[in-house]
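Appendix B, Record 12. Input sequence as logged:
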Amino acid sequence: MKCLHTITLITMLGSLAGVVGPAGAAVLYMPPAELTRNARQIVIGDVSEISYYWEDEARGLIRTRVTVKIDQYLSGQGSGIEVLDIPVEPSAS
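Logged structural output:
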């Protein structure tokens, strides 16, 4: 179960970096086959750290940084540590 969950998590996080919309919670559904077809990397690993930081405090832009310690690359290559920076736009209110 860890393997499937981790692959899905990382693939989804990588995809979310491009689909989080202005509300900060909009997520485009993609079937697993499409996620894996479009993925630059597919990995098995553990999230080792999650942090948040201001990209532009005046505009309210926050980024979430997820660090993953990779156990195995199923597709693609890397250094053994992957860091995903996911933008979170402020909600339009």
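The beta strands are 42-56, 61-75, 81-88.
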